[in-house]
Amino acid sequence: VPFDEEAGPQLLERVLGRDTAGAEAALRAPAPPDFARPEDGLTSLLGAATEGLLHLVRLLCEAAADLDKPAQFGVTPIYSAARCGHEEVVRFLTEFGADKDRPEVNGTTPLMIAASAGQLPVVRALCEAGAETNTQLANGVSSLYLTAHLGHAEVVEELCRARAETDARTHNGATPLYVAAQQGHGEVVQRLCNAGADRDMPEVHGATPLLVAAHQGHSTAALALCNARADVHRPRCDGAAPLWVAAKEGHQSVVRLLTSARADANVTCEGKASPLWVAAKAGHVEVVELLCDAGANKDWQAEGGATPLYAAAARGHAQVVGLLCSLGASTEDRLQDELGATALYIAAQNSFSEVVRLLCEAGADKDVALRDGSTALAIAAHLGDLETVHCLCSAGADWNKPCPDGATPLCLAAAGGFLEVVRCLCGAGADGDRPRHDGATPL
């Protein structure tokens, strides 16, 4: 009996309206079961599968509807049912012979879409039906990668049980374990490790799962990796190790975890800076304390001679400066350049009066000069920084110590027109008549 083509739209309308009796009547017309709506290719079977209407799906399949007819973007009935979490429909379609691995236009399979949506019962149904677990998109992303990225721990375990490849890599070299660590999904990390995933497989830049977890500050993921005996020392291609990146970003809990796991507190990034140095530079006082407790070298010098104390002083991190001074860091180390600035000088130059005060209290030499003869008091007076000048004078700095041209701090303040600084220096006992080498006095 030829199909009544005019009954096709009626059948689709009845299915979308969940009208079983009306759909049965339309099929008796007989309506073509594979009629597709022109604007988007929607068929009655796809509509029923999308809504999870098992009785209508069964009715249409028994009427010989095309199980795999795709609509717009290549979406098939089983794909749509998987995406929407309709386990019974998925099981029925696989048993009836639907192609369980047919992808949509971008290559995503029913298992991939179910895994990414966290649809555990559907994933289990597809795996039990023998769906391919290791299909990859053009960029190398697999079902396991997708669900690991989104943190669906139970789905991850189900896929691993179905022999999904735990170390399949994307075009960037990232594995499911790497992306789970990157996103901070600690339970997923643990389950992947239990399934035998390579704890130390790096992506293309050499970053391991532990390193990316440390960089992002994901302590739960980092703990799971450490418990699985991931390599706490392995650096990425630029030489940065997990502890180094955690210290730089100020992730206190991860730093504590890594130092407890015996990560080297003095490891450097290409020999240029230590974890303590980058933490001090960034002002992460809690991290600085943890690293010092773990045996970090407080006087380690970066390229150019800057110590952690210098790095903190140069940026005005008073708490870090105070902590390092209390722990015995040297206040007298100089930069290895033509000027040889100290921590005290750079703090004065940048007008960080609180840092200047802390360094003076720690015994820093208040009168040490740069190699060009300039002192901390001279630069503070030249800048008109009253607070720093007052701090240095109160700490006993030599207010008459001249620069190479003979200019005293008072000369410099007077030349700059800094009245309050002049008053402070005069009040401290500065010589108001002492001239420069060219004979010019402060007046």
UniProtKB/TrEMBL annotation:
ANK repeat extents:
73-105, 106-138, 139-171, 172-204, 238-270, 271-303, 304-336, 339-371, 372-400, 405-437
Top-rank taxon: Eukaryota
PROSITE patterns of this UniProt entry?
Answer: ANK_REP_REGION, ANK_REPEAT
One Pfam family matching this protein = Ank_2
SMART domains the record matches:
ANK
**Alphabetized UniProt keyword annotations:** ANK repeat, Repeat
SUPFAM superfamilies, A to Z? Ankyrin repeat
Quote the Gene3D superfamilies the UniProt record gives: Ankyrin repeat-containing domain (1.25.40.20)
PANTHER family named among the record's database cross-references: ANKYRIN REPEAT AND PROTEIN KINASE DOMAIN-CONTAINING PROTEIN, ANKYRIN REPEAT-CONTAINING PROTEIN-RELATED
Protein name, UniProt field:
Uncharacterized protein
